[in-house]
């Protein structure tokens, strides 16, 4: 049976990914911080593992990976509600915990494949705006970087670390960059690639994107945006893979 290990498994997006993978007969290991999430995760069919990312060393996270031997690792954690109160959690979770997971994968030396959650507009803002942005995208970008600068910086630095250190880590990564979640339900449709920031997208549709990436190895090494749209998720991800959309150089350098 295939298996997946989700770091930040108690999150809203992570639980939608879990549901989908369990339906596809994956064994899903779910790394979480708080015990209160255990019953809900068992109900979804996952195996919870209590191991707080921020309180763990790389060696401890490597042990978690070695003890579960997953085919694929998903990083879906985030500073979330704690970061709203104290933005330090953006650095602690969105950046540092992510980087610890990348290093732990190297130390564990058993799983190469990782799909990580970033955010649309994590980019080097001293460069001109991306060529595919329109005025509305620019406005959303300005708002994001004004209201959540430490969040945006944390995601940017985690993504940069993953890509720039990969000559030595040699992981099979994909970086998914959704725009704002809209709180809506599943539509099964999105637009993906170099697509800017609008319209918003549902977590359920982004969960489908993660599953499509797991199933499409041609997404390895790609970095792409996801917004709401009208293209079935599998097809949208297939196009990204065929066109080898990798926005890293334009966005992050
Ligand atoms: N909101 C948006 O519009 C938007 C847009 C694009 C991308 N994103 C990103 O999408 C991702 C998922 O979003 P979401 O809405 O599903 O977030 P969420 O519900 O806040 O989930 C984040 C999860 O990370 C867990 N976590 C935090 N610190 C941890 C630690 N030390 N060890 C283990 N787990 C830990 C949290 O657990 P606790 O609750 O126990 O802390 C929480 O379950 C986030 O990275 C977010 O930044 C969000």
Automatic annotation (TrEMBL):
It comes from the Eukaryota. Residues 8-216 form the NAD(P)-binding domain. Pfam families: NAD_binding_10. Belongs to the avfA family. This is NAD(P)-binding domain-containing protein. It comes from Oidiodendron maius (strain Zn). The lineage of its organism: Eukaryota, Fungi, Dikarya, Ascomycota, Pezizomycotina.
């Amino acid at each position: 049976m295939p298996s997946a290990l989700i770091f930040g498994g108690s999150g809203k997006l992570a639980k939608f990914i879990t549901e989908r993978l369990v339906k596809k007969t994956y064994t899903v290991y779910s790394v979480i911080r708080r015990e209160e999430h255990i019953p809900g995760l068992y109900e979804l069919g996952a195996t919870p593992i209590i191991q707080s990312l921020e309180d763990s060393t790389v060696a401890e996270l490597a042990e978690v990976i070695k003890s579960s031997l997953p085919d694929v690792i998903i990083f879906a954690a985030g500073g979330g509600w704690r970061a709203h109160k104290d933005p330090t959690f953006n650095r602690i979770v969105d950046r540092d915990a992510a980087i610890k997971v990348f290093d732990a994968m190297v130390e564990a030396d058993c799983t190469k494949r990782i799909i990580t959650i970033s955010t649309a507009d994590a980019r080097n803002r001293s460069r001109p705006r991306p060529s595919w942005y329109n005025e509305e995208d620019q406005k959303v970008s300005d708002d994001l970087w004004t209201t959540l600068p430490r969040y945006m910086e944390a995601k940017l630095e985690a993504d940069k670390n993953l890509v720039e250190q990969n000559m030595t880590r040699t992981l099979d990564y994909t970086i998914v960059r959704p725009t704002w979640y809209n709180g809506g339900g599943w539509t099964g449709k999105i637009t993906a690639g170099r697509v800017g920031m609008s319209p918003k997208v549902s977590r359920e549709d982004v969960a489908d994107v993660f599953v499509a990436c797991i199933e499409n190895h041609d997404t390895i090494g790609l970095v792409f945006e996801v917004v709401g749209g009208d293209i079935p998720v599998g097809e949208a991800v297939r196009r990204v893979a065929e066109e080898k959309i990798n926005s890293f150089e334009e966005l992050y350098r």
